[in-house]
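for ur thesis appendix - Beta-ketoacyl synthase. copy paste whatever u need, i formatted it the way the template wanted (i think)
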Amino acid sequence: MSVFVAAKNIISPLGFTSKANFDAICQGKSGVRLVDEKPYVEPFFGAEIDRAAIAKKNTDLGHYTFLEQLLILSVKDALSQDTSIDITSKQTAIVLSTTKGNVDILDTENIKGFASEKKYLWNTGAMLASYFKNPNQTYIISNACVSGILALNLAKRLINAGQYEQVVVVGVDILSPFIVSGFQSFKAISPGICKPYDKNRDGINLGEACATIILKKGEGDLAILGGSSTNDANHISGPSRTGEGLLLSIQKTLKSSGVSVSEIDYVSGHGTATPYNDEMESFAVSRAGLSSVPMNSLKSYFGHTLGAAGVLESVITLHSMQENTLVGTLGHKENGVSQPINIISKTESRELKTCIKLGAGFGGSNGSILFRKNG
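the 3d part is after this line
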């Protein structure tokens, strides 16, 4: 059964629609800046959404948390692109991808006016279903930084199994002192805009975003052919040194899609700009036979958006395919990984038909998903 992309959205510091975000990065704009204000104890480079702009757009949503407002705004925009989608139907499911949900209300200052249950992911899922009057229980995927890819893969399988005719997949995570201090304790945050796969890379940027992809049963311009996940259980936070888990995911995705390595036009990498992640990816990609295929990372534009990353970066991949445009990896000047991979440094035009999105996360989790442009 064919599954295609019916609508998409991104909310980030670079804009509130997917087109606005894609246009911004094609112009070399980054949402990453120095964040040096309360409630953060130490300054850091990250991508933070303008709270005032969100509040202005959602004037009737003041009784919802900031994260909930992002979810509602993103899903609303996606739904507006295809009026045939009835989110109140039993044939429509919602899949939520997030690592921390309403993490900011763990702070006693932020919880004022909100029930303590808001901190639980099930509550966020219930809020989405209630707001959009969806009769089904929301599926929640929370598996580190591969959550978004797993959510999309789950959505495709639910449609293929005949359980639903369409699935709304939405990924979200926001910045908070809890998350930022955790990565600072790892000494993993770059002192500037990050440089994925570069010789001088020195850590990640964190970001916040919300992104939505609506999948439908049937034929469309952009289809999901297949996807997979693996877990190599290498380490609680460090990736495999050989890329074994990600390699297996790539191989499984290609096999399930009926696609050969030679058909891949573009690899959307995970590219966190940490020494170990980028090195691991170089092993996985080269071992998979994809060394010469153009590859990029989007982390220097959006920061690492955690549970939103897989969905957000898939939306950008879809726009790249529609526009036949390879987006350059901001900050990349000289390859700094041991295995040969073809990192795009400058944005360029190229015919794109078949693309694979990669992801990796804490605990040895890995995932990939393959898109094809029809016609």
